[in-house]
Amino acid sequence: MAETPEDHIRIEADIDSELAALERSPRANLYRRLLASYPAGVCVVTAFDEYGGPRGLTLIAFCGVSLDPPLVLVCVDRASKTLPAIQASGGFTVNFLGSGSPHVARLMSTKAEDKFESIAWVSPSQPEGGPILHEDAAGYIVCRTWHSTEAGDHWVFVGEVLDGAVEEDRLPLVFHRRRYRELG
Questions:
Q1: Can you give 29-60 as a three-state secondary structure string?
Q2: CA-to-CA dists, residue 14 to 21, 61, 107, angstroms
Q3: Which CATH number goes with the domain that contains 69?
Q4: Which of residues 5 and 162 earns the better pLDDT score?
Q5: What is the C-alpha separation between 74 and 62, in angstroms, rounded?
Q6: Which end of the chain is more exposed for a tag (fewer CB within 10 A), N or C?
Q7: Are 12 and 77 part of one and the same domain?
């Protein structure tokens, strides 16, 4: 489904409204501004809920943790509809969005129930993982939850890397100063 200029304006307005609603205090605003100055890759973290339905959310809170064993970390907002799926499934998939896919990042940042109906995805070979966004990802990592803990208004999940792949010819999508940007 192609995004029209009107859709783009509406989505940007929705995102701006959501960001404005999140502004809580001068300290929180400073924190957001400081983090926005650091460019980060855009990830969609996915999992299957208790009924086998796909769930996913956009985030930039991802990093590598350990080489032995191979561990990565993601941070998920407590209000996320994907959080219960990650907790129940025992794992997740981190999809690194590729350039040309800001529409997927915007879609997955919403609370819509039908997010997966308009994008292509496949199931991973491991039961712990979530949907793989093969047409929109520059790479993905399938993880089994190794550890989780609450941290402020988020849950931190450390995942043991079980599988993954990289699309060598696809550049990543980057988020910087509250905008999606493409490299190259």
A1: HHHHHHHHCCCEECEEEEEECCCCCEEEEEEC
A2: 11, 21, 11
A3: 2.30.110.10
A4: 162
A5: 5
A6: C
A7: no
Full strand arrangement of the beta sheet holding 40-41: 40-41, 173-176, 179-182
The amino acid sitting at 151 is A
| 56-85 burial: b if 16+ Cβ within 10 Å, else e | bbbbbebeeeeeeebbbbbbbeeebbbbeb
26: DSSP letter: H
φ and ψ at residue 3, rounded to 5 degrees: -90, 130
Nearest to 117 by CA among 131, 99, 137: 131
pLDDT at 103: 96
Residue 91, beta-bridge partner list? 144
pLDDT tens, position by position, 134-164: 999 999 999 999 999 999 999 999 999 999 9
